[in-house]
Design goal:
The complex is a heterodimer of chains A (about 400) and B (about 550). Chain A is of the alpha/beta class. In chain A, strands 1, 2, 3, 6, 10 and 11 form a six-stranded mixed beta sheet that branches. In chain A, strands 8-7-9 form a three-stranded antiparallel beta sheet. The longest helix of chain A has 18 residues. Chain A is globular, with a radius of gyration of 21 Å. In chain A, about 55% of the residues are buried. The radius of gyration of chain B is 24 Å and the shape is globular. In chain B, helix 15 crosses helix 18. Classes of the chains: A alpha/beta (about 400), B mainly alpha (about 550). The interface between A and B is large, with 64 and 55 residues.
């Protein structure tokens, strides 16, 4: 992995790697064979955000594979926000449904993971039991072990990685005549010069909150402060962000009185020509969308100078899941080189892999090396910025609502 | 009891409704919860926009529907109005809402049709035309759906009113046709439609189906706030949603009460207008304006359908192109497998609702065929769920289903759909059964047929058309239901409505459009099939007696 300056996280990450739980098991071991027998015939309700056709199709593909090979039935429960499933698990706990719950596997990270883990509603640690866990790039990418400042401790399995990326339409007059803005001040100047063409998804939609975090990390004097829980100094630390937003909103799309509801919603607004900008945690999003005929070929991408907000997304199993063996079998398939390479393929999804590609067997490595990178995919950012402590996101969302819902 | 069929109907519909209400009260009555609801940023505005959009849309739809009925009946184009209403009636709120969002947006179909030749726009203007803070686009959407519904209800009430005699009297007193109708016939019709009108008002105040794609967003209407709370991860916010549904119930009851008082006041003023004896001048201008307005409403509905079709097949579709690049039509092939499973569940559920509903309602209609008073009473009880905010009792029903371990099952969702289909089924089948001349059955019995054979040979054929229509109606109701599928389905049962609402909720209108096509086309297909089946069965009969 490239030189990523996240020293504190690397240190924590090292200790977690030393933990045997993350090492991975043998695919021929009796325990794993027994688990495969148990999983056969099980139905696994995989609760995952269902707002993106490409991702839904990828999950369909995975469902076919595990049904053919292991006789496990994967049902994609498409949720608008994984928080729906989190609240369902909590409701089941309240209702006393401690076995055979309605959720078997979750696509999760950040505050939702924190909420379930703190409430003791996750099963585990389990990731060390998967044969393919040994292939994960534990040492190269610390966000695989620290989920938004909370150690995963084997309760969730890395599935993909994310870096916050901005995309813009290169064909429109404003960006053609000058180079694209690469820092908050230049972005603000662009917004003021070309009103109505920039916006961000409405917090608490996760990309909207991500935009707030990304801008705060770049605007604040002390980015390290954000690694610890927010406290009395929230107003002081976040002040530069609100100054920036107040000025930007006045010249943004709909003058900041309406926001896209999600990242894909913003992508559609870019596709119909209302906006010139969109954003994503997935650097390959625009390339993939162009190939699948959802965006014009004139889209470019950039990371802001000063670093890109980065995190990983994970798979977790609730404490009351009825099909834990099936869920683990599916999770193991989802981090196999075959599934991860397909996921990285920009024709399919374009979500960066969690595997340590350099150490894979030659045939598996070829799966990754044969993938082409699209013109709208930026090269990896010079610097990754770790996610702030979750308490910052909660306070930012609350303050945003107080300020802008009138 | 001597009427098990009636009791079963009540058990299916009224019992869960009350149980759900009781559960909502049990979990929702919480002082701290009320404080949290009231502390939410923008909550006052949310409530105000719910009341404003619901009340304004109901009032405008009512006025339009009355005028439309008056002008069409007195102008001799009643059939045309009926035919015009049908496609708008058949398309669910969600589909029209999603479609209108695609028509009215600055990058929407309407401005594309006018740009750049008339407007000069080469980029979409930065207008707040959809999801505007005043709720105007939401009101427009509700009017497109509720006007045809009220027209239908008014037409259904027309036989109860001696319209022709009243009109003759009014005309002989020298009133114009429009004024004559408005002072003599319309007030009597109004009395007949109070219940459905209340349902329209309640739906307007509490719906999420139109408010998600068209309603304001900063803040959204109160029901959308509740909907978002319900799907929040934080158990405290979830609890607050329970309390919120009680606030919604209170506001709804209060609004219906105020509306009923206002109705009395308007009735008094109306009588004065009638007693003044003034004649309405310029009836021709009123007719012209109304024609234009109705034409506009109808065109919006049809444009919505066109926009759904275009958006679902378009990739990048840069303003101001009227059609998407033809090369991108292939995106449908990518969408089909995803929509296929959803279509299967949706159709299965709707068909089951139609069949189970008719099986439940027929025996009760048979039983109460001579007892019109009790029949009306039962109809009113079955109508009750339509007069309550869906969220309030569905929240409670969901908790009960979780306790019973039934949430997320096909049966639970089917049950929740029956609650909403039964009032319509009863409304079609009970009068149809009561209208059959009892002598047919008597003749069959005297010819020696047993009760079953007499029913299958004499009553069933006479009921067939009504049964087909009722099934198409129940099928369409089921297709359109969103909140019941969401709550009873525990997120596991994916129907066209849940998928379309989820997509619209995250603002991805292209995905929403794909599912909205199913929503729009399936009910039309059901009515078409019912009509065709009726025609095929009766093709060798010259005239089927009622």
């Amino acid at each position: 992995m490239a030189a990523r300056r996240i020293v504190p996280l690397l240190v924590i990450g090292f200790f977690c790697v030393a933990d045997a739980d993350s090492a991975g098991a043998d695919a021929e071991s009796p325990a794993w064979l027994e688990l495969q027998r148990e999983a056969s015939g099980q139905t696994v309700y995989f609760n995952a955000w269902g707002g993106d056709l490409a991702i839904n199709r990828y999950i369909e593909w995975a469902a076919e594979r595990v049904r053919e090979r292991h006789g496990v039935h994967l049902v994609h429960v498409k949720v608008t926000d994984i928080a729906e499933s989190v609240s369902r698990i909590m409701a089941e706990r309240v209702a006393g449904r401690d076995a055979d719950g309605s959720v078997d596997l979750l696509w999760i990270n950040g505050e939702n993971f924190a909420a379930l883990k703190e409430a003791g509603l996750l099963w585990g640690p389990w990731t060390g039991r998967l044969p393919n866990a040994a292939l994960i790039d534990w040492r190269g990418n610390p966000t695989l072990l620290i989920d938004v400042t909370l150690p995963t401790e084997g309760f969730e399995l890395p599935w993909g990685t994310s870096t916050f990326t901005l995309f813009y339409d290169r064909s429109t007059a404003p960006t053609r005549s000058q180079s694209a803005p690469r820092n908050p001040a230049a972005l603000l100047a662009w917004i003021e010069a070309y009103p109505g063409r920039f916006t961000y998804p409405q917090p608490p939609a996760f990309l909207g909150t991500a935009f707030l975090k990304q801008m705060l990390l770049l605007l604040t004097d002390d980015a390290h402060r954000l690694q610890r829980p927010a406290g009395e100094d929230f107003d002081e630390v976040s002040a530069p962000l609100w100054v920036w937003l107040d000025r930007a909103h006045a010249r943004m799309w709909r003058r900041g009185r309406l926001f896209p509801r999600s990242g894909p919603a913003q992508r559609e607004l870019l596709a119909v020509g209302e906006l010139h900008w969109m954003m994503s945690y997935n650097p390959a999003e625009a390339s993939r969308a162009i190939r699948q005929g959802e965006l014009h070929e004139t889209i470019g991408a950039l990371h802001l100078e000063g670093g890109a907000l980065a995190n990983s997304h994970f798979l977790a199993i609730p404490y009351n899941a009825g099909s834990k063996a099936g869920a683990m079998l599916i999770a193991d398939f989802l981090i196999s080189p075959e599934a991860q390479a397909r996921k990285s393929d920009e024709d399919v999804w374009g979500d960066p892999s969690v595997l340590n590609v350099e150490d894979l067997a030659a045939a598996d490595r070829m799966l990754f090396e044969s993938l082409a990178r699209g013109a709208a995919t930026p090269s990896p950012p010079a610097r990754l910025l770790p996610e702030p402590h979750p308490s910052w996101a909660i306070l930012l969302e609350r303050e945003w609502l107080e300020r802008y819902v009138r | 009891m001597r009427r098990p069929s009636v009791l079963i109907l009540l058990a299916v519909s009224v019992v869960p409704t009350f149980a759900g209400l009781a559960a909502a009260l049990w979990f929702g009555l919480d002082a701290a919860g009320f404080m949290r609801v009231l502390d939410t940023p923008g909550i006052g505005l949310s409530l105000a926009s719910s009341v404003w959009t619901g009340a304004a849309a109901t009032l405008l739809s009512l006025v339009l529907a009355h005028l439309a009925v008056a002008v069409s009946v007195t102008g001799g184009w009643r059939r045309r109005l009926n035919a015009f209403s049908l496609p708008l009636l058949a398309m669910p709120h969600l589909a029209i809402g999603i479609g209108l969002a695609l028509v009215l947006a600055p990058s929407g179909l309407l401005l594309r049709l006018l740009s750049p030749w008339a407007t000069g726009f080469t980029e979409p203007p930065d207008w707040l035309s959809v999801q505007d803070p005043y709720g105007l686009s939401l009101i427009a959407g509700l009017i497109v759906k509720e006007t045809p519904f009220l027209v239908l209800v008014l037409f259904a009430a027309l036989p109860q009113v001696p319209a022709e005699r009243l009109m003759l009297q009014a005309r002989s007193l020298g009133y114009g046709r429009l004024k004559g109708w408005m002072v003599a016939v319309a007030p009597l019709l109004q009395v007949q439609i109070r219940l459905p009108l209340a349902a329209v008002l309640v739906f307007g105040l509490t719906n999420v189906e139109m408010a998600i794609p068209l309603g304001p967003d900063l803040p959204p209407t109160f029901s959308v706030v509740l909907w978002r709370w319900f799907i929040d991860a934080d158990p405290a916010i979830h609890a607050q949603a329970f309390t919120g549904t009680l606030v919604l119930l209170f506001v709804t009851v209060l609004a219906v009460f105020i509306a009923s008082r206002l109705a009395r006041l308007i009735a008094v003023l109306w009588r004065r207008w009638a007693e003044s004896g003034s004649r309405l001048r310029g009836e021709r201008a009123v007719r012209g304006a109304l024609d234009a307005t109705l034409g506009g409403v109808w065109s919006l509905g049809i444009l919505a359908l066109v926009a759904i079709l275009l958006r679902s097949v378009s990739g990048p579709w840069r303003f101001p192109d009227i059609l998407p690049d033809s090369g991108e039509l292939s995106t449908w092939s990518a969408v089909l497998p995803v929509a296929g499973n959803v279509a299967e569940t949706t159709i299965l559920l709707a068909a089951a609702t139609a069949v189970a509903g008719v099986i439940l309602v027929l025996p009760a209609a048979e039983r109460l065929r001579h007892d019109a008073a009790l029949g009306r009473k039962l109809g009113a009880w079955l109508f009750l769920p339509l007069l309550l905010p869906q969220m309030t009792f569905l929240f409670g029903v969901q908790v009960l289903l979780v306790y019973l371990g039934l949430d997320g099952t096909f049966a639970a969702v089917l049950w929740s759909h029956l609650i909403f289909a039964l009032p319509y089924l009863w409304g079609v089948l009970a009068p149809a059964r009561a209208a059959i001349d009892p002598r047919y059955l008597a003749v069959a019995r005297t010819l020696g047929a047993g009760p079953v054979r007499a029913w299958t040979t004499s009553t069933a054929p006479l009921m067939l058309r009504s049964m087909l229509l009722a099934m198409a109606l129940a099928f369409s109701v089921s297709i359109a239901l969103y909140l019941p599928s969401l709550f009873a389905g525990a997120g596991r049962i994916a129907t066209a409505a849940t998928e379309a609402a989820a997509a619209a909720g995250s603002g991805t209108l292209r995905l929403a459009a794909v599912h909205a096509i199913l929503l729009a086309v399936l009910p039309l297909a059901a009515f078409g099939a019912a009509y065709a089946a009726g025609a095929a069965v009766f093709r060798n009969r010259r005239e089927v007696p009622r």
